[in-house]
């Protein structure tokens, strides 16, 4: 008998690979529907009432230990259900360990942790492994089980490690319909042990159900409203008003390849420290377009801090606060943007108008439902807005490939500004973009304590050995203080710093964002997320894990050997790729592809190990496409490359290991276009400062002196293979590119 339209219950132990497993189940089990619950949402007494509606249970992986009730939740009770409640179960990783120890196995630590590493899996070609050939599977575990010879659970597959000896890789229960694997069948790099093994589980589950006379109770629409979350989410009804008609984008084109981005910026006020200014610059290949926001006093400035009940809006010199009521900041932003949607700009240009600015790391932490206690010592110093955006109606886009300059306006009846501005740019003289002198004053640099940082690395590794995380991206902040006796000119000191930064460390995702009270200078090499404008929106993420500096002897072949040939570098990249696939699957459903895995890309000063992951909605999805990009952005923050995996548990651990909030660092900056497209980069290789409005004005008064306080964040991904001294040196190396802008 074949079970038609089976319904599976997927239990999520707060992992960052859960949606990958859901997608694998959908591929392996025809016409199945999935419902997802967290492992602590229901106790076993409450869950028993819902089990009859399901054909099988999938127990996903997760951080922690199966003998810790807080980590395993209700899963431990599923293996001991009474006969009338027994249901076929397939466990992965933590699921296998729980099944085994609840039936007498001994839980132990591996001598050598296996996080993001591949192993050859041995099996007999029976049971779960019928018709399965050779398996090379990805492992994410530091704990393993030793089975009792006379126990109820027996081995189906194993691997042989040089360091750990024989390790159990799959088991089944001798009399109950329980199966599990230790490796990760859903990982992008698992070969041979994924689709067919899950398909075999379903074959075995169907056979057991026939023998036991078990039939699932028909599902009802009412249950979808009260129990769990469907995957993928069937509909995304829009609470937003229909977008209103907009006059569109007015565009003029100037062909002056002799004008530099710096020339244009200075023509639009980059040198005036007291004014707002935004630049997103492709200062190095493979970047192409640079975007200059042409701001004025009437430009809307939007600010928000996590925990606030209002959003701050500044325009024409006045600030007022709008209540969020029951909506979150993301919904407020989306409603604002949808009412200003435009569809008739130049399709060749990435940006027509819209929001430009930065989103903090803590905004993403809030989205993970991790508690932020800003009253605690060390966490009250971060005064930067978590959302800091301006709504850009006038912009200049520079195409470095063609040399063309595009002037754009989405403001109504703005022809005069366009004509006046193009005349001004046509008349702009060609001048050498020399740096202006900076105030005299030697920078004082306060590095993190090396002893403390190495201690935190060792604490992080202990969490990895205990199974709490697979990778932890530990960071720390360096402070730069510069006191000077006067200003040599009226020019913006931060702008002069940015010019030095872009020259010394040119990067494809550079930025100068002067949105008071925050100023951000960035030479980021890493695009986080881009999404094309609808229709047919494609979301692309490009994580970087693995970097080697250029040198005369570092050819592509040498770089590839050093990066692709490194078990540690590839493992770091793989963990983040699998995490990003999970984030994307959580929004778009099944259609997620890894376009490139661990390819070496050449940049101006470095070689980087980059992967490319894309996701899009299927044609029959009912998700409004103009919401797709921002929904992926919201659900993907903070960037996985800056947290580790699993994301939620890693963020919780990092809060105990880091001495201050990260703020702008390791958040994102970029744009949200009125067309529905967007492009955001990871805030790394950057520095930022906080200055009250009156301090900005004081900078123009040479009599009071000048004082700068900048922060630079840096760190690295800590894995079980990390060497503490090497990690410290890597963190210091990452600081150098930014410190050079300060002559340090």
Automatic annotation (TrEMBL):
Cellular compartments per GO CC: cytoplasm
Every Glutamine amidotransferase domain range: 9-194
All copies of domain Chorismate-utilising enzyme C-terminal, residue ranges: 450-734
GO molecular function, one term: 4-amino-4-deoxychorismate synthase activity
Catalytic activity: chorismate + L-glutamine = 4-amino-4-deoxychorismate + L-glutamate
Gene3D superfamilies in UniProt: 3.40.50.880, Anthranilate synthase
Cross-referenced InterPro entries: ADC_synthase, Anth_synth_I-like, Anth_synth_I_N, Chorismate_C, Class_I_gatase-like, GATASE, PabB_fungal, TrpG/PapA_dom
Any Pfam family matching the protein: Chorismate_bind
Enzyme class: transferase
Superkingdom of this protein's organism: Eukaryota
GO process annotations (BP): 4-aminobenzoate biosynthetic process; folic acid biosynthetic process; L-tryptophan biosynthetic process
EC number: 2.6.1.85
Pathway: Cofactor biosynthesis; tetrahydrofolate biosynthesis; 4-aminobenzoate from chorismate: step 1/2
Keyword field: Folate biosynthesis, Glutamine amidotransferase, Transferase
Domain Anthranilate synthase component I N-terminal span(s) in chain numbering: 259-407
Similarity remark: In the C-terminal section; belongs to the anthranilate synthase component I family.
Protein name per its UniProtKB record: aminodeoxychorismate synthase
Organism: Agrocybe chaxingu
């Amino acid at each position: 008998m074949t079970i038609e339209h089976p319904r599976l219950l997927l239990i999520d132990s707060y992992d960052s690979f859960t949606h990958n497993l859901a997608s694998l189940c959908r591929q392996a089990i025809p016409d199945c529907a999935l419902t997802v619950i967290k492992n602590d949402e229901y106790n076993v007494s409450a869950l028993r009432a819902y089990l009859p509606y399901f054909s099988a249970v999938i127990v996903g992986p997760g951080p922690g230990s199966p003998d810790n009730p807080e980590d395993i939740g209700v899963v431990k009770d599923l293996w001991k259900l009474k006969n009338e409640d027994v249901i076929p179960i397939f466990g992965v990783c933590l699921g296998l360990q729980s099944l085994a120890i609840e039936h007498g196995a001994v839980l132990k630590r591996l001598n050598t942790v296996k996080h993001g590493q591949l192993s050859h899996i041995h099996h007999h070609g029976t049971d779960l492994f019928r018709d399965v050939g050779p398996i090379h599977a990805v492992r994410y575990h530091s704990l393993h089980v030793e089975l009792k010879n006379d126990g109820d659970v027996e081995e189906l597959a194993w691997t042989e490690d040089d360091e750990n000896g024989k390790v159990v890789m799959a088991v089944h229960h001798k009399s109950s319909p329980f199966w599990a694997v230790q490796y990760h069948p859903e990982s992008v790099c698992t070969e041979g042990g994924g689709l067919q093994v899950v398909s075999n589980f379903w074959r075995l589950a169907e056979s057991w159900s026939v023998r036991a006379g078990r039939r699932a109770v028909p599902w009802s629409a009412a249950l979808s409203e009260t129990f769990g979350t469907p995957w993928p989410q069937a509909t995304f009804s829009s609470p937003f008003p229909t977008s209103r008609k907009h006059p569109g984008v007015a565009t003029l084109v100037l062909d002056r390849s002799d004008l530099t981005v710096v020339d244009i910026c200075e023509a639009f006020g980059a040198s005036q420290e007291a004014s707002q200014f935004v630049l997103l610059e492709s200062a190095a290949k493979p970047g192409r377009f640079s975007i200059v926001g042409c701001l004025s006093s009437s430009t809307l400035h939007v600010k928000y801090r996590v925990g606030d009940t209002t959003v701050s809006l500044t325009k024409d010199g006045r600030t007022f606060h709008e209540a969020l009521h029951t909506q979150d900041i993301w919904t407020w932003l989306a409603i604002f943007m949808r009412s200003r949607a435009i569809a008739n700009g130049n399709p060749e240009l990435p940006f027509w108008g819209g929001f430009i600015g930065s989103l903090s790391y803590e905004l993403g932490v809030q989205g993970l439902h991790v508690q932020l206690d800003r009253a605690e010592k060390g966490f009250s110093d971060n005064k930067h807005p978590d959302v800091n955006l301006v709504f850009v109606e006038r912009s200049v886009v520079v195409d470095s490939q063609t040399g063309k300059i595009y002037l754009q306006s989405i403001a109504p009846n703005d022809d005069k500004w366009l004509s006046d501005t193009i005349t001004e740019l046509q008349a702009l003289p060609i001048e050498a973009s020399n740096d202006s002198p900076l105030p005299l004053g030697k920078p004082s640099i306060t590095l993190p304590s090396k002893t403390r940082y190495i201690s935190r690395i060792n604490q992080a590794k202990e969490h990895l050995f205990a199974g709490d995380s697979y990778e932890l991206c530990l960071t720390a902040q360096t402070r730069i203080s510069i006191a000077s006796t006067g200003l040599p000119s009226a020019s913006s000191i931060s702008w002069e710093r940015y010019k030095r930064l872009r020259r010394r460390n040119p990067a494809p995702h550079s930025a100068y964002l002067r949105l008071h009270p925050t100023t951000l200078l960035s030479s980021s090499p890493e695009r986080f997320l881009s999404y094309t404008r609808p229709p047919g929106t494609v979301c692309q993420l490009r994580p970087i894990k693995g970097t080697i500096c250029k040198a005369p002897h570092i050819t592509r072949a040498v770089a590839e050997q050093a990066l692709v040939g490194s078990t540690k570098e590839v493992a770091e990249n793989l963990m983040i790729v699998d995490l990003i696939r999970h984030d994307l699957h959580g929004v778009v459903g099944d259609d997620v592809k890894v376009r490139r895995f661990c390819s070496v890309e050449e940049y101006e000063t470095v070689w980087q190990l980059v992967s490319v992951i894309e996701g899009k909605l299927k044609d029959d999805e009912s998700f409004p496409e103009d919401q797709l990009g921002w929904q992926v952005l919201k659900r993907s923050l903070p960037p996985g490359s800056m947290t580790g995996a699993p994301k939620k548990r890693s963020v919780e651990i990092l809060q105990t290991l880091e001495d201050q909030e990260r703020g702008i660092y390791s958040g994102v900056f970029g744009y949200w276009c009125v067309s529905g497209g967007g492009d955001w980069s990871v805030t790394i290789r950057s520095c930022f400062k906080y200055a009250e409005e009156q301090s900005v004005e004081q900078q123009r008064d040479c009599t009071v002196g000048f004082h700068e306080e900048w922060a630079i964040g840096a760190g690295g991904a800590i894995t079980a293979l990390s060497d503490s001294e090497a990690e410290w040196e890597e963190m210091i190396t990452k600081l150098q590119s930014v410190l050079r802008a300060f002559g340090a």
